[in-house]
Amino acid sequence: MANLFGVAIVQMQVVPWDAEKTMERMEQRLSYIRRAFPWVNLVCFPELCPTGTAPLDPLPPGCAWDATAEAIPKNIKGKRSGSGPLTERLAAMARRHQVWLQPGSIYERDGDALYNTALVFSPQGELVARYRKMFPWRPWETLAGGREFCVFDIPDVGRFGLCICYDGWFPEVIRTLTWMGAEVIIHPSLTGTVDRSAELIIEQAHAILNQCYMVNANTAPTTGGGKSIIVDPNGRVLQQAGDHEEIMTEIIDLDLVRRVRELGTVGLNQHLKQLRDFEGEFPAYTQGIRQGEMFQNLGPLRLPREL
């Protein structure tokens, strides 16, 4: 038995700080994927891709980094109201190409707060999921952090979870999504720094520890560091991109997640079952993370300026 599902990652370079031209490039790549790989069901883009965000490139004169920020409907069921132009255009792209679309993330404005928010659209253009990045990259990223985890179902396929870039450095995020039933974690990133090599190891670790697929789209150089990656529930790297623009396609099997969780990683380690059956308690969960001894001597979270 197999429950097969076609996934594509678009590792592309944005047009720095130009959302309109970047969206045109996204549209071109969607068109190509639908022509060349009509079996692909879900297309994933990197973090903040539709906005043209390019942290290493200077802002053009008169351009604000949050110029594309817009409201996103809180109620994702039924008819949308109050959507901004990026949200509506992305919905139209999904509908036009008849594909599940995870376009990375956009800047969301909610009152005085700004969030880094990932969206998912159905092939009918319906907004089916929205997720605010919980762990902005402090102290460099000053956006507000979200508070709600996000999973969504693709009918007759399985349950998917969302997280964004630096969220991946917190194993509690992926474990919670797994606890909520996620079998595939979609993880858009915008990493152009030297820690990308560590992130690749983290993706494998998440897949192994949670017996799930990890689908991690990163931006291509020079804005990002590339090396997007897809890992299966046994921790095997199915594909890893290079350091250039690239489209990766992969057929994943949701039944493999269920087999690995039932029979164990590579037929050996049934650690999720053992965690379920564990009768003890984890003090970090029951007493509160801030109470840990290790945290008591840590200084404030700030930009280091001296050794």
Structure, briefly:
The protein has 307 residues and is α/β, with parallel strands linked by helices. It has helices at residues 19-36, 85-97, 171-179, 196-210, 254-263, 271-277, 283-286, 293-296; strands at 4-11, 42-44, 100-102, 105-110, 113-121, 127-132, 151-154, 158-162, 184-186, 213-216, 229-231, 237-240, 246-253.
**The CATH topology is what?**
Nitrilase/N-carbamoyl-D-aminoacid amidohydrolase
Trace the largest sheet across and list its strands.
Answer: 7-8-9-10-11-12
The profile of the biggest β sheet is: 6 strands, mixed
Which homologous superfamily in CATH is the superfamily? Carbon-nitrogen hydrolase
Query: Could you tell me the number of beta strands?
Result: 13
Low-confidence regions: none
Structural class: alpha/beta
Strand residues, percent: 15-25%
- Terminal residue distance: 57 Å
At CATH level 2, the architecture is: 4-Layer Sandwich
* Whole-number mean pLDDT: 95
Please identify the top-level CATH class.
Alpha Beta
What characteristic shape results from the CA principal axes?
A: globular
What's the helical proportion of residues? 25-40%
* Tally of structural domains: 1
